[in-house]
Records
---
Amino acid sequence: MNAWTREEMMTVAAARLLWDRCVCFVGIGLPSAACNLARLTHAPEIVLIYESGTIGTRPDVLPLSIGDGELAETAACVVPLPEIFSYYLQAGRVDVGFLGAAQLDRFGNLNSTVIGPYDAPTTRLPGAGGAPEIAAHAIQTFVMLKATPRSCVEALDFRTSAGFLDGGDARERSGARGGGPRSVITDFGVLAPHPQTRELQLTALFAGATVDEARAAVGWPLLPGPAIEILPAPTISELHALRALHSHTREAHSRPVHVPA
Amino acid sequence: MILPSLAQAIASHVKDGDCIALEGFTHLIPFAAGHEIIRQGRRDLHLVRMTPDLIYDQMIGIGCARRLTFSWGGNPGVGSLHRLRDAVEHGWPGPLQLDEHTHAGLAAAYCAGAARLPFGMLRGYIGTDLTTANPRIGSVQCPFTGERLAAVPAINPDVTILHAQRADRAGNVALTGIVGAQREAALAARTVLVTVEEVVDALPPAMNSIVLPHWIVTAVVHCPGGAYPAYAQGFYARDNAFYQRWDVISRERASFRAWMDRHVLGSTDHRAFLASLRAAA
């Protein structure tokens, strides 16, 4: 009866990485669910910032877009967008940035721009948005992505956002001031960078997932970390809070909005 | 100046070939103005918006645009903008030149435009291939520390168009809630058009709400519902279900054209557009 899905476990695993009072730059989708789950469980004073300029927001339902009215109504303050990027993010006032992408490479670099050549793409993706500067300036970043050999690739089609670039100290030499990816949360477990080479290694598995499964899902030869932790399954209270959040969200989003007269 | 109709405002101020910015970050997106530009058949426009959203998907799909300056081109929380993708991937209905940035870069470009500086500067675009893909992303050296910083040319639209909650009869404009980069986009432009939910005798006292003073604003048009299916805080909510439906409507060229013909081109103005959607619901 408490069977959980891998997607729920991804959200729970990401939420557990957050701490109370941390300042978190949130993206839509799984990151938004993870950050709000943390707020509703162990991190009630977490400060959530959405790039639309809402600071310290406490939505009752998950927003569909990063600028839903719910985010503004429940925010401590709402500031213009240039301020969010220059006075908060660029100034180093964000502890955690959450990123997603279509492609990830072994050094945590991300592609959210194109599949195929830039000038003649086979798939045009939405593009950068806030990601390159979040990747550069957040004190640390967490990446959330479902792993397949098409998403975890040997070589990106386009590097939208910097992780550890070519590995080693390449990131430090680039001028990026934030620490880069600390964890990549996938649907089988967690990857984290090796302290010297900065290559992503398998450091944790969800209960029920295997090393073979992880290797099959990643398009480069995935190395194990020094230890592979088995992450405990979601607790009943975590699952309860997450499912209630999703159910409020579904209910709110299915309520018809009347076309203004 | 309060103008009697949006049709008149667009006819007087938006020309073929212009660089125009319809700003509004998820909130207060000027859909009514975009639809009127479509009805009047404007062509060869250089469109600027941080997030093209559905309104530029529609303008691109109908053939208004030759160039797009942007930083994130998706349907928020839903997926792709299919008309933007079709233009980039297949050149339909015509080729679209991209001037692609990051949010922080485009915000800096608007700020520079508002201050009439030649370029905006940021510690940005680090380790991204965007600097290779877009020759309009450069760098400058700090004369004091020697640090290299990213530079983007200022954006000074011929026309910036906003939607706001209210204006007074003198043409002062107030907007509250999520304000994105609207103030900067307006102050960067040569001409500023604003549609509003209501025109009032006196704006409510709110010292720090965003007020665009009357001599910045070229024309105001009373246009209730002018941001729908985006939203106007305090007036109506974002129609998230419509954003999800747009994924289906816009996926194929034929269904897109049929929807545009029926609801946008088949309506004389925004009031009729909203009525046609209510009738179809």
---
Amino acid sequence: MSLTQKLTEALNSGINQIGQIRILQNPLRLHHIDDSDLGALEVHTNPGDAREISLYADDGEYRFTKGELTLKRGWIFQLESIDDLRRTIDLFYPASLGLWQATESGHIRIQHLREKLDRQSGMYRHARNLSDQGAQELVQCLCGPSNKCVKKILWNIDETLPLQDSEASRFNGIVGEADESTAIPMVCQEACNFFVAEARKKSKAEFEAKPA
Amino acid sequence: MAQVKLRSRMNFPPKPDSALLIVGHGSTENPDSSTPYFDHAREIRNRKVFGEVHCCFWKEEPSMREALYMIDAEEIYVVPDFISEGYFTQEVIPRELELTGPTSRVHGKTIHYCDPVGVHPSMTSLILQRTDEVAPGVPQEESALFIVGHGTGLNKNSTKSIKDQVTHIKTLPNCRFAEVFDTYMEEAPFIADWAKMAGSPNVIVVPFFIADGLHSYQDIPVMLGFEKEEGQAASQKDVFRNNPYSLHGKTLYYSAAIGTEPMMADVILDQISTFDSQHVAHPETH
């Protein structure tokens, strides 16, 4: 089944949210879940505009990880087709639909943190020296809604070592109070490159903190 | 002027059942750095020559591994939107996409891995077009063309594509540039020495990068001598609007990064055509 077909089925079954985005049908529209006065919103019809809207948070910070809970408000997309809807969502939340489909179908290829860190090369190869405890601490200070990430973590430290219980490890990938039957969860199949960069820094700090 | 013609605008055979995946570097600091990739993708999407067109990145989202989940098509052409062969094209991209050769079977999909755009001969046409745009009416016979790359002592391949372009331009039958130089930010010949190298009254400088960013906004202008070290950096595009600059008794014209040229979409398609002619017509076993 194509992603477009999967999305069509999901909408027909009552799905109306992904991340911080509300999906409306008849006609197809998208807006921020915290916006309610739809007539006051800036209208967009080109899926490509989603990239521009998602570039910066309100405070001017560049959102290089799109799963950040900092999506700007004030816009509404009026779209002509499910294909356009798919493109728009993929610009707001890259690969989110595909990862969701793969998770639902059981075809997701989860990359545990050790696999991700061990395959780093160049300046990031030192990230692999991060301790297990250091990795657990990083998850709790970088991931989950309290750290502005909207994704459900699918990976563990390695195949045998799960994440320690925390808000980040428990988060289901659905923003707000939406029911799981009405929202597409955002999933994290492998640690992002921001996490890897922070793992490199923490690994270095651990090394420097060791007694000589 | 004789130029290497871009073939694909008219001749690219549509691949409605295939996907194109453009791989870029991306940045955690400067959103301008990924803009050209989306521009190239949009241009190719508008031509309707691929069933799907997507971008993925090393430093931004979607990552290369995530990107495969976005694609319905069974056959994927991967084009590194990179300016040269090197660490990313030879190590990082094959590793992240789990490639085993020019054509790989990966998780049920067939992936064709093309050469980076910057090494394609049709880049020559873009450079020459860019010189016409940035210095209109300036006689080539009285001009020195400088192509500027990053350069690094770590990888000789990183300068090869620029050296090849210079050689190619010099040998074009109708090339009238008095001088053509390959120069670099971090290895000799240094762009900072341009005034010593150029014997012509006019100088045209083209940064051989995919995207504009710190290097083209600030670093190279500082090396050329018309910006100060402490100037603003990101998104400061005025450096391209104030041509020409009068420096060292010469008239200097400064171009935006070559990758911002809209015709880069044609180079991407040319790179795919080249791949097909070298590999798909003669399948290899890996």
